[in-house]
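The freezer alarm interrupted the setup, so I double-checked each line after restarting. Inputs confirmed:
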Amino acid sequence: MQIESKAAFESLQTESRARHADAQAEIHVCCGTGCLANGSKAVAEAFAAEAEKRNRNGGPKLVVKPTGCHGFCERGPLVAFKPSGLLYTKVKAAAVSEVVEKTVEGGEILSRFLYKDPTDKSRIEQYADIPFYKHQNRVAMRNIGLIDPTDILDAVAEGAYSGLAKALFEMDPDRVIDEVETSGLRGRGGAGFNTARKWRSCKKAEGDRRFVLCNGDEGDPGAFKDRSIMEGDPHSVIEGLIIGAYALGAHEGFIYVRDEYPLAIVNLMIALEQARAFGLLGANILGTGFDFDIKISRGGGAFVCGESSALMLSIAGKVGEPRAKYVHSTAKGLFDLPTVLNNVETWANIGAIIDKGGTWYASLGTEKSKGTKAFSLVGKVKNTGLIELEMGTTLRHIIFDIGGGTLGDRPFKAVQTGGPSGGCIPEHLLDLPVDFEKLTEAGSMMGSGGMIVMDDRTCMVDVARYFLAFLIEESCGKCTPCREGLRQMLVIYNDLVEGRGKNGDIERIERLAKAMQLGSLCELGKSAPNPVLSTLRYFRDEYEAHINDKACPAGMCRELTAYRILEDLCGGCHACVKVCPVDCIAGEPKSLHVIDHEACISCGACFDVCPDEAIVTFPKNTLFETEVV
Amino acid sequence: MTQEYCAVDLGPVAEILKDYPPEEASLIQVLQDVHRAYNYLPCDVLGTVAKTLNVPLAKVFSVSTFYKAFSLEPQGDTIIKICVGTACHIRGAGQLVEELERKLGVGPDQTTEDRKFTVKTVNCVGACAMAPVMIVGETYHGSAKPARIGKFLAEAEVDHAD
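Predicted 3D structure, all chains:
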């Protein structure tokens, strides 16, 4: 059915909203990658079978929707009920018929599926009351979890494409750009460049053919907001791209998706197909005479292709090596033609901004960073998952109120933001309001919105070393400072973590970092020393301990760390024996256990499982002294 | 060995090439389809791709080695990917790699002699909330523990036999 007028679009909205009005309940089963790994596919199928059975027997209508990621992956599979607003966590397929019978039909709440607050152990019934959700404000992720991403009518019922209709029927292209300018929206890929300014500079560039591109090459380790948006609400991205194309006068668009996100590619393909079928994409969109279509370009597994010039080369089928940026891609981008490239989350915001107005969006956030921002909160934190918050929220609020604090309430050490271009922010800066400027001032950056929480058992020298190893693998190798600088730094870091650190190493690292910042060709190379410099800035004492004492204060660097079982505390539970990969722990159940230091590989598996906290770490070079004592 | 790599059926690649315009811009997409069909990029096939798309073979080789999704060596029946993104790293992905090495005798980017398993490390699959993550074939395993790896491998062998 091709929609060819404003009235036809409005009646499609009404129709799609009325579709499930006669349902007794809607059951939303999270089918994001996280919940799928926990078995949500079987749960969704079981619910669908139950609903089908009831519908066949003339019972009340139940609608079952497999939705995108609800964000609370830790507790999956998640099942949300409408209209009651109830949320069940960790639902198994075997329990589905009981849930339908007792909860959906009988109205009884099964407390074993309710979310248990980790701080006060209370059970929470309503989705909206759970701290993880309560503090969120979703704009880019507005429909994720509410809609079946493979059903365009579901998306339309929740307001998808109403921003597009408004733009096409009520606004001329320049008004659209004005509205985006009013909103103050800045690029959500990390650098935070003003979106409207980027659009205007592309519009000014000469050429009768231009492109809009979506960067879905979310390569920062620890970030997955773009994956969730593409999987859970692909229409928000498509709508944004169409509006952008209309504003810029482009007729061709590409969504570049990384190869590691197969479900995102499938859901985007389905969404594009459906949008074309309804006349929302393709020739003569909504009967207005505007033509625009989108192709999907799959990445090949190269981190550097998230960089704009590399991404454009990759779409053109070439090796993704960045070029110098004295000519902007807004003037000479894909195939050397004027191009606008924005991040998935940026595009997902556009529809809402046009629909609700730039002033509304600008009322959210801080003075220079407007609106909301999606983050993936992961690492050593209780409630891991995906969140969207107003800019300016403090790190403490995010980690402790929404995240519920560190795992096992261990001491908090740092939070890493901005991926390999970002840095580690220490405890004394926890009250920092998160926005583009504040993170940069703290030596980190916004990046793709990954927030990786680290506790006292994370070695900051090892974290910096980890990012170097990551970047060496991902550096495209075109320019020398990045390619060789990273390697030389890694040599020094390997010395540090293996007990060969010497005086002058820190200074050598700093000199190399400076050279890379000044000499690298692209932003990835220029920002590559950030994890190194930020850990040096805030955790210099850990570096010094590695060099001077040959000790790892976090007890993580294996060459420097040994483990020991404390006699007084060991209850002889045998848990450590079971997990030891090299069978180096001896002891009968209910009696003291002992680690054989000759065979121990210091992997820490025993430390993690000991319920009595009887296993402790100590510097390996004091092994002999400790044994004597 | 070389003989074995090159002696492949060129039927599938001919079919794949029909779907794409014969130009350089199609190269990566074609190679992805080829990789899926053959489970690696055989050298003869690369020659066919180069000729059809009118791209020098050297360029095809350059693209094939630049992108990590491509392998020039035959892969195992089941590909095991261990995510080594930041969240997985600090939650113990390294221990998974070691345990696999003990169990299978191969490290990252290697294939077992019986060609049953290929081990790969990947820089973040975006399932950070369930760290550490390993993907055996198509199945995602969240909060993976070294002690469970034996079970994952056994399941994969059964799946493949089906």
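Quick read of the result. The longest strand of chain B covers residues 78-83.
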